[in-house]
Amino acid sequence: MFGYDNLQAQSAKTDSLEKLLPLTTDTSQQIAILSKLTWQFRYSNLKKALHYGLRNIALIQQSIYKKELPQANGYVGVIYRNLGDYSQAIIYHYKALKLAKKHQVLIQEAYSYNNIGDILQRQNHFSDATTNIKRAIDLFVRLKNKKGEAYGYLRLGEVLQKQQHYQKALKAFLKALTIRKKMDVKQADLSAPLHRIGVLYSVQGKYKEAMLYLSKVLRQYETKNDILGICSLQNDISAIYLQQNNTKEVISQATKTWKKASEVTAKPIMYRSARLLQKAYEKQQNYTKAYYYQQLYINTLEDFLNEQRGNQLDALKYSHQLDKQQVALDLKDKDIQLLQQAQKEHRLRRGLVYALLIGIFLLACLITVLFRGNMRKKKANHLLQNRNQEIAEKSQEIIVQNKELQAQQEEIRVQHDTIERRNHHITQSIKAAKTIQEAILPQETRIKQMFEQYFVLYRPRDVVSGDFYWAGRVDNTRILGAIDCTGHGVPGAFMSMIGFALLNEIINTKKITHPGQVLTYLRQEVKKALRQEETHNKDGMDAGIIAVEDQPDGKVKLEFSGAKRPLWYITKESESVEIIDGSRVSIGQAYMDKRVIENRTYIFDKGTLLYLSSDGFADQNNVDRRKFGVKRLTELIYTISNKDLSEQKQALDKVLDDFMTSTEQRDDILLMGVRL
């Protein structure tokens, strides 16, 4: 079914553009050729597409054609999405949105909203994804852009499908298909809606209907040289054959898919093909080949995750540069204060000079009167002339000083304007970092699906935070964690993003659910990520993680592990908050003795209250510099434990606000509570 030979004839146009590029000297034509090459290679050769896309952005930035920047950044965002690097993809789509608004390019603003929604749904942020996609659809309708409107409904259908709203998803896909059928024949690309409808039926187990739609898609993908589309389609068809136990067809199709996807380094497609081949050979009881493809699947997936982690660390280094710039600006503020003090002293000296002038003037008047009364006294007349000469010299000095003061005032004004502009740019960059950090934190809807009653009290000290929380589910096990990273603000945010990415890999990818093992792996990975054996870096984090699993007898099994953080709990019989201390190990710290992170297991009745936190709440001081303290905090929690969790949060917020009156927050604050 592949027909890969048909794709070779479609590369002639691309080859001619590549040959034309070095011969073109006109900047506008170079930009046009680079844009076409980036877009044409977006499926067939991702490395080339990324090369041409980044080269295009650099060329536009040095030219007068700045209105082309939104589209150029959007293209690079699509390439990173196809590579599976969602962290880089969303950065470029946000850049494209900002530039589209700046240059008032409405069509690119609409595409940016749609692309941001696409990335957010791939990261399971469904509410934010839906909001952005609907904004895109509204803009496309206003612009009467049917192609974009259909594109928006495709993305909306994908969000609904992931939420298992299958009827609504089908309605959105059919809407996109209807719009595209009514378009001009040259623009009517039906492959995307047909493919998504086929996959939707497959997810529901309706394989006959799925194959009916998927069989219509291949020819359209071949026509536009969409290698990623062909590979993704063949994996979807192979998955259906696997469900029907047609292992011979699975092996035939998935082998071809692996080969073609590896040519364009499409690793998400590659590891899916390897997984299908592993399962097919297992069904044939050919365990040698099944093991081979299992190792191929694991190695490809690890390569993909390592690439993503490397890009996230690059983004953190970029944020660290912004923090250094902020420090430089703080030093500039001190320079301004010194200049203002100098200006004040100049004004004081100028006042003294004026007073001296008045005194000299009065003295001159007196001398004049004396000279009129005693014209014969030559010595007195000579003295008067000398005094007048002194006055003239001092007046000239005052004029020179005034000019110097005016020049200094102008220099101070210019420096102040420069610092104001730099402050604005840094503030905008930190706000963008906050948006990215909020995007990776678990949505509260995810926690609500795990625990009917919960609260999250989360207060970053600065715009971004070094504390973060993690929530997820693996089979029947619900996992919740509160992590306190070294530092706060931008440096703390670096560690929080590293910690969040590593927890995703450990729990979601490696399927490790015992909290003690999770923290042990996290300790090892942080050591590798920060190269602590080479740099002797001591950054890290303290953490508390719980894993909860319902038992057949109606009770709840709880596993807890802490790295210098405790678990607080309250049962129906408790007379105070009871404490399970964490291990005396901080992640990122080296110890002379061989310390291990312990895993503890308990059985609790339903209704038991659990609390995880960082040390921010307890360490907060009031105006008298007295800390709130762990004892006062646990007594407060026990006092309000008869309230609903939402009312507990309100009470904690009020007590904290009252305690912090007339003082600043000293650290990031995180406190979570759940009821089993």
UniProtKB/TrEMBL annotation:
Keywords: Coiled coil, Hydrolase, Kinase, Membrane, Serine/threonine-protein kinase, TPR repeat, Transferase, Transmembrane, Transmembrane helix
InterPro entries: Bact_Sigma-Reg, PPM-type-like_dom_sf, PPM-type_phosphatase-like_dom, TPR-like_helical_dom_sf, TPR_rpt
Pfam families: SpoIIE, TPR_12, TPR_8
Renumbered ranges of TPR repeats: 70-103, 150-183
GO molecular function, one term: protein serine/threonine kinase activity
Transferase found in the keyword field: yes
Occurrences of domain PPM-type phosphatase (ranges): 483-675
Superkingdom of source: Bacteria
Transmembrane segments: 351-371
Coiled coil: 377-422
SUPFAM superfamilies: TPR-like
The protein, known as: Serine/threonine protein kinases
Species of origin: Microscilla marina ATCC 23134
